[in-house]
From TrEMBL:
Organism: Aquarana catesbeiana (American bullfrog)
Keyword Cell cycle: no
Pfam family, one: IL34
GO-annotated cellular components: extracellular space
PANTHER family associated with the record: INTERLEUKIN-34 (PTHR28606)
A biological-process GO annotation: positive regulation of macrophage differentiation
Keyword terms of this UniProt record: Signal
Record InterPro entries: IL-34 (IPR020415), IL-34_sf (IPR038328)
Endpoints of the signal sequence: 1-17
Domain of life: Eukaryota
Coiled coil: none
GO molecular function, one term: macrophage colony-stimulating factor receptor binding
Protein name: Interleukin 34
Length: 203
């Protein structure tokens, strides 16, 4: 009986490890696509100066929001799911604003495919445990007059920073800090998620 239970636990552990490995492969691909040079080129240089999109307040998901939710006891699993849904919506908003031959379109399409792969096998009922996250998701799907004007680059900056904070340790993401831009959430804002030793990016 004990041997059978041990075998079952091993199978479950291996299954979970395979899921993590697959998710991390997707996250590492997304991490590369969202690095600073791509965000500047596709989200700023290819848009008119001071161009902004109107998005819901819930779609401006920044490090501060993540910190607040962590302090309220929200799990990393829920935060990752919320982050995925929010940014899937943001990519749709950006895509709708682009002319058919806009040079940013292929880049947005690539990001959408990656997010679809990441969220493909997730189930909201299994991912969401708290009423607070459910309320945020409900507001995302409701029409509202409360919108905020945000630059396309700022939206993907938020996406990248929160990705790094939520997946850095588990997926061994490299540290892209540079003199050009501080791309990461400040370590002190996310004490439960911050690495003690960060992996530098290869040049």
């Amino acid at each position: 009986m004990e041997a059978r239970l041990l075998f079952l636990l091993c199978v479950l552990a291996l299954g979970r490890a395979a899921v993590i490995l697959n998710d991390c492969h997707i996250i590492q691909t997304l991490h590369g696509k969202l690095l600073y040079d791509n965000r500047v080129t596709y989200m700023r240089e290819y848009f008119p100066i001071d161009y902004k999109l109107y998005v819901k307040y819930e779609e401006v998901l920044r490090c501060q929001n993540i910190t607040t939710l962590i302090n309220k006891g929200i799990t990393v699993k829920e935060l990752r799911y919320l982050w995925g849904i929010v940014n899937e919506n943001i990519l749709q908003t950006i895509q709708r604003a682009l002319p058919l031959r806009h040079p940013t379109r292929p880049y947005i399409k690539e990001l959408q495919i990656i997010f679809e792969a990441l969220l493909r096998d997730t189930n909201e009922e299994q991912q969401v445990e708290s009423n607070q996250i459910q309320e945020i998701l409900d507001r995302l799907h409701q029409s509202t007059d409360e919108v905020k004007a945000v630059t396309p680059k700022a939206l993907l900056d938020n996406c990248y920073k929160v990705l790094y904070a939520l997946y850095e340790d588990e997926c061994a993401l490299c540290n892209p800090r540079s003199d050009v831009e501080d791309t990461l959430c400040p370590p002190e804002t996310l004490p439960e998620l911050s690495s003690h030793q960060r992996t530098p990016c290869k040049s």
